[in-house]
Amino acid sequence: MTHPIPIRRDDQRPRLLDLFSCAGGAAMGYHRAGFDVTGVDIAPRPNYPFPMQQADALEHLAALIISGEIERYAFVHASPPCQHGCALTVGTNRSQGWGRTHVDLVAPTRTLLDATGLPYVIEQPNGRAEIRKDLTLCGEMFGLGVIRHRNFELGRWTTVQPAHVAHRGRVRGYRHGRFYDGPYVAAYGNGGGKPSVRELQDAMDITWTDIREELTEAIPPAYSQWIGSAFLASVHSLGAAA
After folding, report:
1. Cβ atoms of 133 and 169 closer than 8 Å
2. What's the superkingdom here (predicted)?
3. pTM over 0.70
4. What whole-number distance in Å separates Cα of residue 145 and Cα of residue 171?
5. What is the per-residue pLDDT across 179-223, written as a single tens digit (0 to 9) for each?
6. CA distance 147 to 219
7. Domain map of the chain by residue range?
């Protein structure tokens, strides 16, 4: 299924579907880039800053495809749960019995996204082999207080990979019983040397939630703002050339 991308003009903004939306780190970036965002998450997310539907993301997407309502959207972002197979889970958490025990949702997510006929992004952390690494972004590229490398698979569109910026030092916190100082905070977990909620908010530019679990799962809005702006620029460039 393929249909024209509904990029609108004037005071209307293209609509973006944010699957597995969590607290809205990606959503805020896309909003800043120029999209109207609607989120979908299986858990209640009262801090999500835009309209959202509490539902199973893949069931909701399948229903939109069947009904044809997916055609209201111009773009889809998906951040399937990353615990299955991510570096932290397989390594650090394996001793606790968590590694490789989570369901892998990347493949079924991609199958449904391909069926939409829309351009899309699948986001995952480093250590995931299940997605193509078409794009990798890092907090230092945007002057943030986190490193937080994230990989993005781009479906039905493409853009250039920006140059990676050298890190200014280490991530602050304990490693194997030793404390290291550095210019970045560790935006995951709850152990020794981890940042406060306020430090996480400041480091990632996320101010609308103060729930640690939501902050540690979020991507900084700067990442998706860059992606959303690159996508809109590519669409407008194609329109000008037509």
Report:
1. no
2. Bacteria
3. yes
4. 9
5. 999 999 999 888 778 999 999 999 999 999 999 999 999 999 999
6. 11
7. 15-158+219-241
